[in-house]
Design brief:
The complex is a heterodimer. Chain A is an alpha+beta fold. Helices cover about 40% and strands about 20% of the residues of chain A. Chain A folds into two domains: about 220 residues, Cytochrome Bc1 Complex, Chain A, domain 1 (2-Layer Sandwich); about 210 residues, Cytochrome Bc1 Complex, Chain A, domain 1. In chain A, strand 11 and strand 12 form a beta hairpin. In chain B, helix 8 crosses helix 14. The N terminus and C terminus of chain B are likely disordered. Classes of the chains: A alpha+beta, B alpha+beta.
């Protein structure tokens, strides 16, 4: 087995002593301005590009994982899947036969997708600006009058079962979920799509009850990117009015403190080589430490990797870091991909060593510049699609960054100092949970 | 549409699928006199003193810019003896070689927080960076200097061989890539399309420094390049671009066009081989990029049937055979284009009929209502796939090296030639095109699952 190219100590010494070969730029260009408005209690966050060919609309509904209980685990995804499958009125679709709203929107030249996170289910609609009011109208019909019949729930369940099976093949997803279950409590700890067993136990009545308590006008917010017209804003308002008034019960998200002594969890999967997830707590975007943690993410993503002229894809990387700042609560995971030929045990030791070193010594100024540039570039590159921007501005609007949103994140990186990075490493990187995914055969032998 | 570079990237194995343009004859390059007008947001020009093309597309949105250099060059090299992987190794070597002064291109892009990818196709090569927009002028300058006056170091070369061999190894785990390589190998009797773009890890290790130097000297010239910059930039982004080496009199390869030919096989022998999982696929020779009406119809067919999550065949497979995959795309090439379909990860005796039935249905004209919806969806998919700086730059680069830049989707927004061709499609014409091209015998591939290892093979007593 190949060892990591350099030891952590060597890398860290290099970062602290050697000047960077090239200086990073002092500032970076910014995203278009974001505005937040409120209409009848509905928060609208907008980042408009007048030259865009399309419009993206992200609809956040307070119906995420945290609203589930042990017995309704999976209801958030099941309700969302049923909604996008709901047949819409024939007079709205081109066909005389009612068709699922997802297909009706596609037939109009648009799309609808959804994703489930801890707090919300967020639906994303995209089309040309002239079609968007019609697309929103179609979706409004499904959102307000979803089909939770037995047949619809069964069909939705089959789709989610397949997604669960797919995610089980991905050791990164498996490891992150293992970490989440150790770190989070109650609904937030549950998998995005539930489990095969819990989905099986959920029927139309449970999904209907979940919908009734969570799909309320007071729990909805909307973000828009691309070309945004007054007609679209008006259609969004009508869509919000289609939900019953009222607020959703407030959430109390709790975490289990990461233990001082390292906690290790092991699972077997059909993987060729071991895969390790090291999970840490992390600051939220509202926190003063947000920028410094983005810098640390960039550092941990690149400090261990072999030098390559081209940027390595996720699956090619031996060690990488992902900061889930949009999760509630936020977390940072560092992964070690044994499939690339590195020795996972050595790599894990190196990760831990670097985490400890970062807490004891400040980064040199050149190293800080380098990783701030990397963090800035990573952040900008992660928000180039309408979908990503709509999601991020909507999500960040609910934090203290507010209208500053994406540019607030870039400012936070700019303002991070060596002392901030050291403090954040000391605060968050000294306690961790290790999730180890090993090949089934290895366990048997 | 052109083939996307990545069809999947997982921790199990990142899957690189290079498209393989095919040439029956030399593709024409833009001449200095022929500068197409692609709308108010796009400027097309030539590098000063060179026939190389420069395209700048200005857009608002994220403060990011794609900076890409495209070269027309065969993946197997210019010599008589094909060297699979040579183009990719050469481009990687240049990006990783450190000049006497300053960092390598790869390090320079990393220092500004950028991302660098190099994608080889059978007859072309893309060096693609995505960087914060204000770093774009610096990267335009660095990239043009690096490639138009290439420095090739031994360290850069050895790192490149290591990295490309790893990439080739990973791509070998992807069933769609393996099917594609086999199908193209069958469809084209010789030329670059006949060979895997990356080659095998063994092929890559056979590439020598001398071969790389020779390839770089011939391929990486301003006269043979298309520079594309897309994103939150102005035309001033080009201020520092290098003009490259001067044209040398009597040089055998200073012409912008590089003759690259792949010959379509006259007899097709189906491929059957072992792989980790069951998979299969087809490839048909289709219309050239110059037949815009037919090429657009083939794109429509691919979108209607195989668009992930929305195509008729894709959805049927998703519903009826969860866990299985089907992928299909018309690859718009100079001549001929190729319709490629792959499917697997499930019972092929059930998967194949779904695919075959879907393709056969295209020979009957869709109802007017259904066709209208499908075309709306098709046009939306085109726009949705052209919303980031990288997508736009890839698009302009690809259609430029294939010899029909004005036909690039997104050129002049929806007022351009591609959308005009899409708007002119009729159900009857689509059916005619399907009949014309998809009833011929395709190159076909079947991957049979490897037999289970015997206990003896594991070193246990039998």
């Amino acid at each position: 087995m190949k060892l990591i190219r350099a030891t952590a100590a060597w890398i860290f010494t290099l970062l602290c002593i050697l000047p960077a070969e090239h200086s990073a730029r002092a500032t970076v260009a910014r995203f278009p301005a974001t505005s937040i408005s409120s209409a009848d209690g509905l928060r609208l966050t907008t980042q408009s590009d007048d030259d865009a060919a399309l419009t993206g609309v992200q609809i956040f509904v307070s119906a995420g994982l945290a609203h589930q209980t042990r017995t309704t685990n999976g209801a958030a995804a099941l309700a969302a899947e049923c909604i996008v499958r709901t047949p819409v009125s024939a007079s709205l679709a081109q066909s005389s036969i009612p068709m699922p709203v997802r297909e009706a929107i596609e037939a109009r030249g648009g799309s609808v997708t959804y994703s489930v996170d801890e707090r919300t289910v967020h639906y994303y609609l995209e089309s040309t600006p002239d079609r968007m009011p019609e697309v929103l109208k179609l979706f409004e019909g499904a959102l307000a009058h979803p089909d939770f019949s037995g047949a619809a729930v069964a069909a939705a369940r089959r789709t989610l079962d397949n997604r669960i099976a797919e995610s089980e093949k991905n050791p990164f997803e498996v490891g992150v979920q293992m970490f989440r279950e150790s770190f989070l409590q109650s609904g937030t700890a549950y998998p995005q799509y539930g489990t095969l067993a819990t989905l099986e136990s959920l029927g139309g009545s449970q999904v209907r009850a979940f919908y009734a308590t969570t799909y309320r006008r007071g729990g909805m917010s909307v973000s828009m990117t691309g070309r945004v017209t007054p007609e679209i804003v008006a259609a969004v308002g009508r869509l919000a009015e289609s939900l019953p008034s009222g607020a959703v019960a407030p959430l109390h998200v709790t975490v289990q403190p990461v233990p001082a002594s390292t906690k290790r969890i092991i699972a077997q999967r059909d993987v060729a080589r071991p895969f390790i997830i090291v999970g840490f707590g992390a600051p939220s975007p509202s926190d003063h430490d947000f920028g410094a943690m983005l810098v640390l993410e960039a550092l941990l993503s690149s400090a261990f990797e072999r030098s390559s002229a081209t940027t390595l894809a996720l699956g090619e990387r031996s060690v990488g870091a992902v900061y889930f700042y949009d999760s509630a609560p936020a977390s940072l995971v560092v992964y070690v991909n044994g499939g690339t030929g590195i020795d996972p045990t050595v790599a894990l030791r190196e990760v831990v060593l670097v985490a400890k070193s970062l807490a004891t010594r400040p980064l040199g100024s050149d190293a800080l510049k380098r990783f701030k540039a990397a963090a800035t570039g990573e952040f900008v590159r992660s928000a180039t699609t309408l979908y990503d921007r709509a999601y991020l501005i909507g999500m960040l609007a609910s934090t203290s960054l507010g209208e500053r949103g994406l540019n607030g994140a870039l400012d936070a990186i700019d303002h991070a100092s060596s002392a901030d990075v050291q403090r954040v490493a000391k605060t968050y990187l000294q306690r961790y949970i290790v999730a180890l995914i090993v090949p089934r055969q290895a366990q048997q032998e | 549409m052109r083939l996307p570079v990545y069809i999947g990237a997982t921790f199990v194995g990142a899957a690189l699928l290079g498209a393989t343009p095919a040439f029956a004859a030399a593709a024409p390059a833009a001449s200095p006199q022929a500068v197409p007008q692609l709308g108010a947001a796009v400027t097309v020009s030539h590098l000063q003193g060179s026939s190389g093309t420069v395209i700048v597309q200005r857009a608002s949105g994220a403060p990011a810019a794609a900076v890409e250099l495209w070269f027309r060059a065969p993946s197997i090299g210019f010599g008589d003896k094909p060297v699979p992987g040579l183009a990719r190794v050469a481009a990687q070597t240049v990006a990783g070689s450190k000049p006497i002064v300053g960092p390598s291109l790869g390090d320079r892009i990393e220092a500004v927080g950028g991302h660098l990818a190099i994608i080889a196709y059978a007859d072309s090569l893309a060096v693609a960076a995505l960087v914060p927009a204000d770093a774009a002028p610096e990267i335009v300058k660095a990239m043009t200097i690096a490639y138009f006056s290439p420095v090739i170091s031994e360290e850069g070369f050895s790192d490149a061989v290591r990295d490309v061999a790893m990439e080739a190894l990973i791509s070998g785990f992807d069933p769609a890539t393996v099917v594609r390589n086999d199908a193209f190998g069958q469809l084209f009797a010789n030329g670059p399309d006949h060979y895997p773009v990356l080659g095998s890890a063994k092929d890559v290790s056979a590439v020598t420094l001398t071969l790389v130097r020779g390839f770089a000297e011939r391929a990486f010239r301003a006269q043979n390049a298309v520079l594309v910059v897309s994103g939150a930039v102005s035309d001033a982004v080009l201020a520092g671009a290098s003009r490259g080496r001067p044209v040398q009199a009597n040089s055998p390869f200073e012409l912008a066009e590089t003759p690259i030919s792949s010959v379509v096989s006259t007899s097709l022998v189906p491929v059957r081989e072992h792989f980790d999982e069951a998979a299969a696929g087809y490839a048909w020779a289709g219309p050239p990029i110059g037949r815009e009406d037919e090429a657009t119809a083939m794109d429509f067919i691919a979108d209607y049937l195989f668009r992930p999550g929305a195509g008729v065949a894709s959805r049927a497979v998703e519903e009826q055979m969860p866990g299985a995959f089907v992928t299909g795309q018309f690859i718009t090439l100079h001549n001929p284009g190729v319709m490629f379909v792959a499917f697997g990860d499930g019972d092929l005796t059930k998967l194949r009929p779904i695919v075959d039935r879907s393709l056969a249905q295209m020979r009957t004209a869709l109802s007017a209502e259904r066709f209208s919806s499908a075309r709306d969806a098709f046009e939306y998919h085109l726009l949705s796939d052209l919303q980031t700086p990288t997508e736009m730059a890839d698009n302009f680069g690809w259609y430029s090296v294939e010899g029909n830049l004005p036909y690039a989707p997104g050129a002049d927004g929806k007022a351009g030639r591609y959308f005009a061709a899409a708007a002119a499609l009729t159900p009857e014409f689509v059916a005619q095109v399907a009949e014309k091209y998809l009833t011929k015998t395709p190159a076909s591939v079947i991957l049979v699952p490897n037999p289970p290892k015997s206990s003896a093979a594991k070193g246990q007593p039998s």
